[in-house]
Structure of Phytanoyl-CoA dioxygenase:
Amino acid sequence: MFIENAQQLTDCPFLTIVRGYHDPKSPNKNVDEQYPQQEKIFLNIFQIGLFETYHFLYSECRGDEHFKNWIIGLKGADFYQQASLKFNQWYQGEGNAANTSFVSILSEAQHRFWEENGYIKIEGLIDAERCNAVTGLINETLGVDISNPQTWYNDHQLLQGLMLQLYQHETLDHIRNDERLKAVFASLYGLDALLPNCEKVSFNPPVNGNFTFKGSPLHWDIDFNIGPQYYIQGLLYLNDVPVNRGPFSLIPGYHHKIEAELQHKDPKILIEELKEQNLSIPVTGKQGDLILWLQAIPHAATPNCSDLPRYVQYLSFNRY
């Protein structure tokens, strides 16, 4: 694909670094230890998803100009221009945001609950109109007719288990870029130098005689070579999720125990033990409710035994 006037846009030299790092023909890489965080900021500023970017780099990309044109095709030339300028400034140390303190919008009781349990539910954060717009996008992408249950189980190349690798649409951006959403994350991080991650969505249809639950069992999303960090994960219920509609589940308070347990247990063994102990609780909610949890909290989706699908948009932020 050739983008007219792409040559006239501001160059982003980091594209070459990203492409080189993920070039399957260059398995031996000497990469600066700062690279993983730099790549995260690159994805944040250009507002592209991890999965879609890696898929392109490993299966399609033919060079730097092809990578550049792919981003322009997704985001537009004007967006690419502004993102290149912003990232170049950050990368050169000129546009780094100061990690200033942030006045929390959460109550003392909410902070105490968060500190004790490692998760929190913020009720009614996003309005029904924006939630419905995303469920409509998911339905359109998957060919789902909500009035026809036979269409709820369609296969799609972007659907992996419950996860739909869908990143680029204004309805998703309207929620990711919500100021109150950022303020909640900022309240828990204690700073407002945050950029939204370009995250996926989820579609969890009811189980039946022909369809079994496709979700992952209890797990962490942790790189155990590094260990648990103070990283906040999140999801938004796009429709009502009572206890029988596959609510998110977790083990509250486990962030107080994980480091001690990992000193004498392998993470794979530990998570299997936790599964057997049945310590998880469901976190039900209404449309527009936001659920946040610490990386150290074991969590999982649950089977949907209701009469409607469950819809979720994942949300998180990266500090910079």
